[in-house]
Write a structure and sequence with these properties.
eight-stranded parallel β-barrel; single chain; globular; about 15% strand; binds 3-methyl-2-oxobutanoic acid; TIM Barrel; 8 strands; alpha/beta; about 270 residues
């Protein structure tokens, strides 16, 4: 008999059931092994290897430059640290929009080489054929509507989306389409709370909100933002649980002082 206690892994089916049972879903990003281990141990239901890695890991202004190879590398690192959470990886800009065959190839690489459990892509009707192709290959797909950062140069700003009626109506119809196509969940980013509530009530798959109010079926935040590593980024929707920027810079400056003053290492720290 095994002495190890069985860890019940979260699947797309678990998330569907959580919506049915009205239990909120939690998702955070991670991009590396050590962080993924901590986030998983903290009990999050799903870990997203977001293409926000382009911003917080690589320092790019937008998510556009990150490549599929780079996203696969981040995903491999995260997967090695996770025992319980559902691991969802973003397909980056330019790897699924041009045609369904290319989209499927990108998704297959992310599953096969990255080891992701599911992929996430941005858009609705415009990428319908790509979503259908990926879902038909047996790959779980999470949609992403509202503020879709890969379209930033079309939007021109990171302000709240779908405040106007036409865009709000399209968002609801895209939500229904994503459900019909077989997506297992949809991320709703930076839209009015009332619209997110309506969207969540219109479909049976879970909605996971970021800046989309309290009535989504779950919430997602970027790890670096919620632990306060990013000093310059303070959108209204962000709740900071730590001030790691100050903690870490404080620790580093103490280390510098200790070395400069020959306080570190001391006798106990030497062989
Ligand atoms: O890339 C990302 O981190 C995301 C989340 C903001 C949902 O897509």
């Amino acid at each position: 008999m095994s002495v190890h206690s069985e860890i019940k892994k979260i699947t797309t089916e678990t998330l569907r059931k959580m919506k049915f049972d009205k239990e909120k879903i939690t998702m955070l990003t991670a991009y590396d092994f050590t962080t993924a281990k901590m986030v998983d141990a903290g009990g999050v239901d799903s870990i997203l290897i977001g293409d926000s890695a382009a911003n917080v890991m690589a320092g790019h202004e937008t998510t556009l430059p990150i490549t599929l190879d780079q996203m696969i590398y981040h995903t491999q690192c995260v997967v090695r640290g996770v025992e319980r959470a559902l691991v969802v990886a973003d397909l980056p800009f330019g790897t699924y929009q041009s045609n369904p065959e290319k989209a499927l190839d990108s998704a297959v690489r992310m599953m096969k080489e990255g080891g992701a459990h599911a992929i996430k892509i941005e858009g609705g009707k415009e990428i319908e054929d790509s979503i259908r192709k990926i879902v038909n290959a047996g790959i779980p797909v999470c949609g992403h509507l509202g503020l879709t950062p890969q379209s930033i140069y079309q939007f021109g700003t990171y302000k709240v989306r779908a405040k106007e009626e036409a865009e709000a109506e399209k968002l609801i119809s895209d939500c229904k389409l994503l459900e019909e196509l077989g997506c297992f969940a949809v991320v709703l980013e930076k839209i009015p709370a009332a619209l997110a509530k309506k969207a969540s009530e219109s479909i049976s798959i879970p909605t996971i909100g970021i800046g989309a109010g309290p009535d989504c079926d779950g919430q997602v935040l970027v790890y670096h933002d919620m632990v306060g590593m990013n000093q310059g980024f303070s959108p209204k929707f962000l709740r900071r649980y730590l001030d790691l920027y100050s903690e870490i810079t404080g620790a580093v400056s103490q280390y510098v002082k200790d070395v400069k003053s020959s306080d570190f290492p001391n006798d106990k720290e030497s062989y």
